[in-house]
Amino acid sequence: MGKQRLEKHLKQLVLNIKYEYEDGRISALDLVKAVITKLPLPLLEEYTQLLFLPLVLQLVNDESKKCRERVGECITILLSRLSSQVLQSLYEYAERWSDKKSGIQLARTAVQLFGLFVDARVDFVKKGGRVETLVGHLSKTLDAEIANTDHTSVLIAKEWEMVYFSLQTLEKIGNLLKPHLWKDLTMWSSIIKCLSHPHPWVQLISSRIINSHFSSCELSQFEKVSDNSASILLNIPGSLFEITRNLCFEINSEEEHQSDGITTMAIKNLSWIIKIMDKHPSLCFKIKASELADDGSDDDDDGKTNSPVTWLITRLSNIAKKRGVKRREAVFKCFAAFATVCEASIIRNHLELMIGPLHRVIVETEAREETTTFMTNHRTSTNSTQTAADLPNEVLLLLEDKCGTDVFINTLAAVKSKSREKRDNRKQKIAQEAVLDPENAAKRRIIKQQKEKNRKKRRVHERKVGRGVFTKKPRHHS
To answer: What residues have CB less than 8 Å from 94, skipping those under 6 apart?
Structure first.
C-alpha cells in the first residue's frame, strides 16, 4: 500500500469516529484501537499527529460515556507504544494547553491528558522532574478552582470538571508514585476542601484519595511524632477534624443527593478516624502535635473534657434525627462499623448517643404500622414498614454483643425513659398553650389538620398507584 493511499485510509478512519450514532462511533474506535496496536512503530510515529489530535478532540466533545472510555483507551495505547522523543512532543502540547491563557477548555483537556500519560508511561513521567512539576500545577489549579467555585450553579455549569479531572490525575499519581504527593500541603488542603464540594463525583474521588492516604498509615506510627512526619494529619494541624466535619457533611446531604458510593467511602474513613481520634485527640486541634508532645498535654485527661470521639458520635446522632431513609441508613451503618472496629470501652461511653436515634426510628416504624392497620393492602404496608426497622434492630444487636447485655439493657431503659419524659413534657406544653395562648393553639390545630388531610391524600394516591390506576392499559386488537 502506497503512502498516499495509507494516509487516505487513516484519514477516513479518523473521520468515522465522529459518526452520528453511538454504535457507529464505538465500531470506528475499536478499529482505530486495532490499527494503533498492530501498525508498525515507524509508521505509527509518522502518523501520530494524524491520530492524536482528532482523538483528543473526540475525548472532550463526545457526549457518550462509552465512546469517551474507548477514546481514552486508544490514546493510552498510542502513548504506550511511542518512543520518548515523540512522546515528549505530545507532552509539550499538553503543557502548552495547560496554561489557562489558552482557554479553559484546553486547560481541562490538558489535565485529562496528563492522567492518560500517567496511565500509559509512568517511566516517562518520572523522568526530568515531570511529576513534581505536574503535582505543583495540579495543586495550583485545584486551589484556584475551589476559590472561584460558584456553589449555587456548580451542578448546572461545568465548573466541577476541572476540579474532578485534577483530582483524577492526582489519584493516578498517588496510586503509582505515592511519595510524590506527601510534600505539597497546599494540595492536601484543597483535597480536604473537596470533600464538601457540591458535586458528588468530586466528593467521591476526594474521599478515595483520603482513604488511600489513611490505608498507608498505621495507628502505631502515631505513637512517636517523628516516625510519621509524612502524614498530613501531623503536617496540617487540625486537618483530622476538618476531614471528619466534611465527611459528616457528605452523610448529611439531602435524600436526592445521597449516593451509596460516597456513603461507603465516608463510613470507611470515619471507621479509621474514630480510632485515631481516641488514641490521639490532639490531632483534631490546630496545634502542632510536636508542641503538644513537648508540653505533655497529649494525654487521656485532656480527651475527657474535649473528646473528638464524643463530638463525632454526637454529630452523627443529630444527623439521624432528621427524617430521611438514606440519611439514617448511612448513620446506622456508621454505628455498625464503629461497633465492629472500635474497642468496647468507646462504644460503652457513647452507647446512649447511638441507641437514641435507633430507638426513635423503631418507635416511628411501630407507629406507622398502627396507623396502617385499616388499609386494605395491610400486608404490603406492614412489610414495607418492617424493612425500615430491620437495620436499626440489627445495629442494636451488634451494640449489645459489643457492650454486654447488662450495660445495653440499662442504657436502653434510660433512653426509653428520657423519650417518654420528652413526649409527656411536649403534651403538657401543648395543653398549657391551649389555656394560656388559645390563638396559637388554634393555629397549631389547623396546621395539624392540614397535615392529616395531606397524609390521607398521599395514602390514597399510594393505594391507587399500587392498584395500577395511573398506568396506561395496553390496547388489544381483534
So the answer is: 110, 113, 114, 117
- Identify the sign of the CA torsion 228, 230, 235, 238: negative
Closest CA to 262 of 217, 119, 254, 138: 254
Dig out the grid coordinates for 226 from the structure.
517523628
SS3 sequence of 159-178: HHHHHHHHHHHHHHHHHHCH
Q: Provide, for the chain, the percentages of residues in helix, strand and coil under a 3-state DSSP scheme, each rounded to the nearest 5.
A: 80, 0, 20
194 to each of 54, 207, 435, how far by Cα in Å?
A: 32, 9, 52
Record the cell numbers describing residue 400, joined without a space.
449489645
The grid coordinates listed for 169 are 490525575
6 to 24, 43, 327: CA distances (angstroms): 22, 10, 59
Q: How far is CA 372 from the centre of its chain?
A: 37
For residue 214, which of 262, 174, 263, 166 has the smallest C-alpha distance? Answer: 174
Q: What 3-state class would DSSP assign to 251?
A: helix
Please enumerate in sequence order all residues whose Cβ is within 8 A of that of 169, keeping only pairs 6 or more positions apart, or say none. Answer: 111, 112, 114, 115, 118, 134, 138
Residues 202-248: tens digit of each pLDDT = 999 999 999 988 888 777 666 655 444 567 887 788 889 999 999 99
Straight-line distance from the first to the last Cα atom of the chain, in angstroms, rounded to the nearest whole number? 62
